[in-house]
From TrEMBL:
Keywords, in A-Z order: Aminotransferase, Mitochondrion, Signal, Transferase, Transit peptide
Assigned EC number: 2.1.2.10
GO cellular component: glycine cleavage complex; mitochondrion
Region forming the signal peptide: 1-23
GO molecular function: aminomethyltransferase activity; transaminase activity
Taxonomic source organism: Catagonus wagneri (Chacoan peccary)
Annotated GO biological process: glycine catabolic process
Domain Aminomethyltransferase C-terminal: 263-339
Name of the protein in its database record: Aminomethyltransferase
Binding-site list for substrate: E176
Superkingdom assignment: Eukaryota
Catalysed reactions listed for this entry: N(6)-[(R)-S(8)-aminomethyldihydrolipoyl]-L-lysyl-[protein] + (6S)-5,6,7,8-tetrahydrofolate = N(6)-[(R)-dihydrolipoyl]-L-lysyl-[protein] + (6R)-5,10-methylene-5,6,7,8-tetrahydrofolate + NH4(+)
Similarity field: Belongs to the GcvT family.
Length: 347
C-alpha cells in the first residue's frame, strides 16, 4: 500500500483517501547572501562544500562551533540569480542571524564583497506522493525537471516571485514554497481548494520526520553533539574534510576514523511509546544513554525512537532496554530510515 502522508491519517485515523498534506506556514529564517565572496563567507561557517553546488542546487549543512558542536542545521541553495538562499530554524533565528551578520561584517571590514538580506517570506510545505501533481496545476514550469534538493523561481497559482524547492521534512516527495508573507494565506487557500490537500500540524509532521530518521534540532542534535556523533558525517564535504577549514574541524575530522564516545541510533521498541529523555539501558540494566525523539510509527504499527548510546552499543541489531514510566521495555538498535524515503530523483 502506498504510504499516505495525510497529517490527519498520520495521527492514527488512517484516512487513505487523503494522500497529501499542507503544513502551516513555517516560521523558518530565510536569508539571501550576496556578493562575490558569498561562498567564502558561508563556507567559513558550515561543514558542506557550497562551492560545488550547481545552479539552483541545494544541500543540507550544519553550522558548527570550534568544539565541533552543531549550532543549527540549514539548507543552502546556490541560486541562478547570483545569491545563496539559506533556510535555517526559527528557534535559532537570533543565534543564526548574529553568526552570519558578524561574519559578513568581518569580511566587509577587510574588503570582502558580501552582503546579507533577511527575507520577509513565509514557507509553505506541500508534502505527499502526489504533491507535484497537485502543484503542477498551478505552475507553468515542468516539475518533472525539478529533482530532489533543486529549486526554481516561478509563479504559483497566480502568486509571483515564489521559490519552489523539491524537498521537505517528511521523507516523502514534496516541495517547500517560499512565498512573500503578504501572499501566504492566498496561496495556501488556493492549494486547499484541491480536495486532496489537507492542513497539517507539527505533531503529525514529527511522526513523519522520525520515520524518515530526520533530526530535530534541539532534540536530536545540539551544540554538545558533533556531526559524527549525530550520524551526520555525510554532510561533511570531501574537499572540506581534506582542507579542515570549517569550525571545529580539528575535533570533527579525527572522529571520522575513530570510535566516538556516543552515537545517534534508531531504536525499535516494544511496549508503551517511548518519548524524549527516556533512559536507554544495556541488557544488564545499566543506564547507557537517553532517547531524544520517539513516537508510534503509523506506517509500521510499532514504536520507534532515536537516541544516543556508546559506540559499542550502536551496531544495528544490538538488543537494549528503554525505561518508560519506571518500567523496562525491550528495544533493538535499528537502521534508519525506519520507513524508506520517497524523494524524487531524475531517472
Amino acid at each position: 500500500m502506498q504510504r499516505a502522508v495525510s497529517m490527519v491519517s498520520r495521527l492514527g485515523l488512517r484516512l487513505q483517501a487523503l494522500p497529501l498534506a499542507l503544513g502551516r506556514p513555517l516560521s523558518c529564517t530565510q536569508t539571501k547572501i550576496f556578493g562575490s565572496d558569498r561562498v567564502k563567507m558561508m563556507e567559513s561557517l558550515v561543514v558542506g562544500d557550497i562551492a560545488e553546488l550547481k545552479p539552483n542546487q541545494g544541500t543540507l549543512s550544519l553550522f558548527t562551533n570550534e568544539a565541533g558542536g552543531i549550532l543549527d542545521d540549514l539548507i543552502v541553495t546556490n541560486t541562478s540569480e547570483g545569491h545563496l538562499y539559506v533556510v535555517s530554524n526559527a528557534g535559532c533565528r537570533e543565534k543564526d542571524l548574529t553568526l552570519m551578520q558578524d561574519k559578513v561584517r568581518e569580511l566587509q571590514n577587510i574588503g570582502g564583497d558580501v552582503g546579507l538580506e533577511v527575507m520577509d517570506n513565509a514557507l509553505l510545505a506541500l508534502q505527499g506522493p502526489t504533491a507535484a501533481q497537485v502543484l503542477q496545476a498551478g505552475v507553468a514550469d515542468d516539475l518533472r525537471k525539478l529533482p530532489f534538493m533543486t529549486s526554481a523561481v516561478m509563479e504559483v497559482f497566480g502568486v509571483s516571485g515564489c521559490r519552489v524547492t523539491r524537498c521537505g521534512y517528511t521523507g516523502e516527495d514534496g516541495v517547500e514554497i517560499s512565498v512573500p508573507a503578504a501572499e501566504a494565506v492566498r496561496l495556501a487557500t488556493a492549494l486547499l481548494e484541491n480536495p486532496e490537500v489537507k492542513l497539517a500540524g507539527l505533531a503529525a509532521r514529527d511522526s513523519l520526520r522520525l520515520e524518515a530518521g530526520l533530526c530535530l534540532y534541539g532534540n536530536d542534535i545540539d551544540e554538545h553533539t558533533t556531526p559524527v556523533e549525530g550520524s551526520l558525517s555525510w554532510t561533511l564535504g570531501k574537499r572540506r574534510r581534506a582542507a579542515m577549514d570549517f569550525p571545529g574541524a580539528s575535533v570533527i575530522v579525527p572522529q571520522l576514523k575513530s570510535k566516538v564516545q556516543q552515537r545517534r541510533v534508531g531504536l525499535m521498541c516494544e511496549g508503551a511509546p517511548v518519548r524524549a529523555h527516556s533512559p536507554i539501558l544495556s541488557t544488564e540494566g545499566t543506564v547507557i544513554g537517553a532517547v531524544t525523539s520517539g513516537c508510534p510509527s503509523p506506517c509500521l504499527k510499532k514504536n520507534v525512537a532515536m537516541g544516543y548510546v556508546p559506540y559499542e552499543h550502536s551496531r544495528p541489531g544490538t538488543p537494549l532496554l528503554v525505561e518508560v514510566r519506571r518500567k523496562q521495555q525491550v528495544a533493538v538498535v535499528s537502521k534508519m530510515p525506519f520507513v524508506p524515503t520517497n524523494y524524487y530523483t531524475l531517472k
